[in-house]
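haha ok so turns out i had the wrong file open the whole time. this is the CORRECT one, sorry everyone. sequence first:
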Amino acid sequence: MAKTQTETYIRRSITDALRLAGWAVFYIFQGLGSYKGISDLIAMKDGTTVYIEVKTETGRQSEHQKQFERICIEHGCRYILARSVNDVAELLTYKPLF
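then structure:
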């Protein structure tokens, strides 16, 4: 039986892949005073901003996270619930380093 990947591992994998593809990626650490439900990651590239909530295979969004997703969609923003790098694959347009 395969071990489930941790949320930290998935988040770091997504961050690394997006940065290699030229995205600026920011991890939002939830703490005292932060907006409840805000996505784990915010990625920006070429005038596009994407909010990414990272979950394990069995992880579920809290009600605050669902509310934040609705707010993003209502305002025309891109929101992705990602359980692996595959869920952000459409954002990964690799450019040659040279």
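The chain has one domain: 7-90.
again sry for the mixup
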